[in-house]
Amino acid sequence: MAAIAGTPRARALSAALREARMASGVGQRELARQLSLSNTQLSHWENGHRVPNVEQVAMILAAIRVSADERERILDLARNVDEPNWLTVGMNGIPQQLAGAVECERSASAITEWTPMVVPGLLQTPDYSRAIMQASGLDHKDIDLRVMVRIGRSEVITRNDPVHFNGLISEAVLHEPIGSPNVMVNQLLHLVKMSSRPNVSIRVVPLRVGWHPGWSGPFVLYDFPDAPPVVHFEHYSSGAFVPTEHDVSEYRKAVDKFHEIAINPAASAELIEKIAKEMERTP
């Protein structure tokens, strides 16, 4: 059975093929000529409109002469590209899922994210992201690269055809000291600024409202114009993409529950700005 285009794993595979070719310095038309393919067919594989099989992926990787490790990583995506659920365990699996998340962000029509402990990644300032990574003990060079990637990812919210972003943030996030007080103040003011964009909705879920689905953990719900929706879970050293209709439906119900208990967007912006000003006054 042919693999379905548009799934997170298929999106990650297309991105991996595109980036590997570009890193090799080989143009798309030149590679298509070498492989006796049409440029249109190769373009479909690289932009995710079609999914190549394992043999076709191996042929491409051989032609552009990728390293052994990179070859195995991309082939692993190709071998399992038709599996609907995508679970990785261990830090080595996170880079592959990061590629899938980036492609989902780029092609989504709407993103809904619930975060109980930190600001959603697409709304983080560079200094806030850096503070989290420094606290995680990452290498300095690795931190610089990841911060740049994070900045690039956030462009899906500010580009000419921006994705609609629905951020649901626990009130605890606004008080948790990540980085210096100045880092936190700037982060909170950035949230206020972003909330003024017509494509961004930020709602604070207050504390002391009792149990709600969010206590089960963070999640991201992606909606696409050309593919079924998918839920993404990312934890410290594991992650999963789940496109199952039942699971997506349950998380939509969770979002509905959040909207019942969350502060409305205007009041949320006022609360965030108030907390930022209180932090500024604190010696």
TrEMBL record:
<dbReference type="InterPro" id="IPR001387">
    <property type="entry name" value="Cro/C1-type_HTH"/>
</dbReference>
<dbReference type="InterPro" id="IPR043917">
    <property type="entry name" value="DUF5753"/>
</dbReference>
<protein>
    <submittedName>
        <fullName>Transcriptional regulator with XRE-family HTH domain</fullName>
    </submittedName>
</protein>
<dbReference type="GO" id="GO:0003677">
    <property type="term" value="F:DNA binding"/>
</dbReference>
<dbReference type="InterPro" id="IPR010982">
    <property type="entry name" value="Lambda_DNA-bd_dom_sf"/>
</dbReference>
<feature type="domain" description="HTH cro/C1-type">
    <location>
        <begin position="17"/>
        <end position="71"/>
    </location>
</feature>
<dbReference type="Pfam" id="PF19054">
    <property type="entry name" value="DUF5753"/>
</dbReference>
<dbReference type="Pfam" id="PF13560">
    <property type="entry name" value="HTH_31"/>
</dbReference>
